[in-house]
Amino acid sequence: xxxxxxxxxxxxxxxxxxxxxxxxxxxxxxxxxxxxxxxxxxxxxxxxxxxxxxxxxxxxxxxxxxxxxxxxxxxxxxxxxxxxxxxxxxxxxxxxxxxxxxxxxxxxxxxxxxxxxxxxxxxxxxxxxxxxxxxxxxxxxxxxxxxxxxxxxxxxxxxxxxxxxxxxxxxxxxxxxxxxxxxxxxxxxxxxxxxxxxxxxxxxxxxxxxxxxxxxxxxxxxxxxxxxxxxxxxxxxxxxxxxxxxxxxxxxxxxxxxxxxxxxxxxxxxxxxxxxxxxxxxxxxxxxxxxxxxxxxxxxxxxxxxxxxxxxxxxxxxxxxxxxxxxxxxxxxxxxxxxxxxxxxxxxxxxxxxxxxxxxxxxxxxxxxxxxxxxxxxxxxxxxxxxxxxxxxxxxxxxxxxxxxxxxxxxxxxxxxxxxxxxxxxxxxxxxxxxxxxxxxxxxxxxxxxxxxxxxxxxxxxxxxxxxxxxxxxxxxxx
Length: 479
Description:
GO terms for molecular function: oxidoreductase activity. By secondary structure, the protein is an alpha/beta fold. The chain has 16 helices and 21 strands. It has three domains: 3-43 and 99-151 and 276-358, 3-Layer(bba) Sandwich (FAD/NAD(P)-binding domain), CATH 3.50.50; 160-272, FAD/NAD(P)-binding domain, CATH 3.50.50.60; 371-478, 2-Layer Sandwich (Enolase-like, domain 1), CATH 3.30.390.30.
């Protein structure tokens, strides 16, 4: 290979999604020359096929759901949504699937961008197959960070390829609502897309193999979401999945369920989990198994590769599959790479600068359904499984004055879990319209380990929904 095709940097980042961009931003700020390798659009899954387009679809849906219950709002708000306008808004929020703005930002902060498919090629080396068919060899003086994310995982259903199913990418980028949509999966993607497309005119059937929706959060959350989906017209079924399916010559999808029932749809969305984008990135060249999740320690260093040069950041490490959590990891990884490049000792104690403690202690998440679901830290089930002794405190959010101002028929619920030994909040769940904005206060309380007695002095403004914090403390005091 000619020397013109070999380029050396301090840091190589594979993947230019939000995670890779943040790693590169931090290492560049630390004075390390950095290149990002990207085979698709700079900005990644979140910008074009996940967070941004899905929330653009859901925002008009949720705003309308609240507005129809507020006195004095014009009756026209009860009319069906303007589908073309909603989809045009979705397109704008996805930058029309063009990454010019992302590329401009990458260049503006001094990061190099190399288009092409990057594969590890041994210790601190990456081979990039460029769009013109050429190959560029990259060498890293200090670190390689794998930030390739995850993809939709399809179930092992016979003939699934010929079925041409929707994945999350199809569900967020569709050009029109299907008349009949079957959604398979009870998790975040399944319930959010069922909420969006039902409101945009599809007849949605949601299939959950579990006994309820959103099985990773408190059960009352899934119950309220189920109730609203059914009120909106969706057919929600539990303890069932797809046994067989085929797409006919006229384009219909014919589905047989595990309980023997049969359905016909125009599209079927499988929202049944995620898999790492690691099957073709050269893991075998460094002793790892292609297609596996990449296990790391709290410094985001891949534990199975010696030498502290390989990092896995974001979804690909399977620590916490959220964009915001991946960006948090990126800040940690960038600081670790910078410290090691300077020969400094890492500070990896609990909540220390070089430790991703939040991945296990305080992972926040919002499900943008009607009603919203916001949670951080432990659930009751997780506390029981891990042997944590917790006190459970519940309060109906609809009893708070601020909630009634928000919506006269407000229905929602709040729960906090208090560690009995340390007397700090270790988990919180809020369900109801607008509760996503409550979540950061809970995240701060958990990550800062604020004593419960001190929370009495954090006075919520009246009349806001945040007053539920005071009501939770009063409920605990009076119980």
